[in-house]
Amino acid sequence: MAVTGFWDVCRKADILDIAERVVAGERIDERAALRLFDCPDTAAVGALADLISRRKNGLRASYLVNRYLNYSNICLLSCRFCAFYRRAGQPGAFLYSVEELTEQAYRSWNRGAVEVHCVGGLHPKLPFSYYRDLIAAIKERCPGMMVKAFTAVEIRHMADRIVHRSIQEVLEELAESGLDSLTGGGAEIFDAGVRDEICRGKETAEEWLEVHRTWHRMGKKSTATMLFGHVEKPAHRVDHLRRLRELQEETGGFCGFVPFAFEPANTKLSHIRRAGALDILRTIAVSRIYLDNFDHITSYWISSGLPLGQIALSFGADDLHGTIEEEKIFHMAGSNNPVSQKADDLAAAIRESGREPVARDTYYRVHPAVRPFRKAIGVGA
Ligand code: SF4
User: Fold this and answer.
1) What are the UniProt keywords, alphabetically (predicted)?
2) How confident is the model at residue 1 (pLDDT cuts 50, 70, 90)?
């Protein structure tokens, strides 16, 4: 968009004052973020977010060759937005052994995956050694593969119900076993009232933030997420972003932010209409503009579908997430999107959007180990 055209678009959308602040490198406050959410001209908000994205990452957009592993869907809780959990013994409940999971990771590593992403339910009986052994076994069998595992709620579960030790001690032992990064899951929407409606009994926002704070203080990295498009209002999304920006200011430990829309089918909130395309794009754009201390915003194609995920690369996102290989959580909630993508399809989607595709690792760094694997995983020269 020509520069004069850009200012004109912002003026017409009544966000000129915000655009001037953002372009001057100033931080916007929560009131401005709320105005961006309320702005009916999504394209104008997207153009502003795109400008910030290009400033931070140029024309580069990344993707990840990774593998999802869900060790178990057996869970003590029953979050109303979740279609994944089962009670032990219920039809559809599963629990994999460390050996089975390591074999799955190994097969993906052989095909060029650089990361395994591993989460599960809050299993009432698994010993702490299971989690440690799983990480150690994958690290040993798949040299160089990065292990991103466990949500903050799983960490609290291990600490409070399984080993009765501090969060710090649990995290230190997992790090010793080889854990490279925590996942960002479990954040949902931080507001207490919203949490009470969608996931009563789950950790509070403060507890989620404390797990990540502790991990960051150990010099470690993690990602952050936001599950939107259910009972929350735009003000709750802004409050969520505010708390993340504050923790990032304190620790600098988040390497990326992954907002994704709620998938209602097969959940106790199935009456809720799924977030529309413009809402998804606007949420990504506002996140990019407001989270000025986050380097990367991920467009999560599992939630949005690849075509919309690709469009989001022009609305502030600079990452298309991963190949994944086998996604369960969104698909048990009725997602019609594919369960995996080929690396060359992600690269082609990025290229088609006018960006330069780069394969990345867990920390969003261009991953040198990906290059020798490019032929094997089918990425063009
Ligand atoms: S979202 Fe996680 S904690 Fe909640 S019911 Fe599902 S698996 Fe359990």
Assistant:
1) 4Fe-4S, Iron, Iron-sulfur, Menaquinone biosynthesis, Metal-binding, S-adenosyl-L-methionine, Transferase
2) low
